[in-house]
Fold:
Amino acid sequence: MAKGLYIGLPKADLLDIYNTALAQVKAGAVITSYSDSGTSVGKTLVGDANERMREAYFALSQLEPENYPEQTTVIRTDWSNLRD
Structure:
């Protein structure tokens, strides 16, 4: 759920945040890496990029609702195959 972290940023900045996060999701970019005593560790954090995309889109939907409509999740259930 978006919290409105980017509300108030200019549209160009919001689109830049969104596109950067999207590129990281597509590439599976390594966001965190560190080394200690000759051991190197890298971790892919796609969840963070997803959250940034969600936040940027939410802010865009508040800025220009006609161009960036609110995203809703629809859950559909098929009850026709019930068995006793």
User: Anything to note?
Assistant: The chain is about 40% helix and 15% strand.
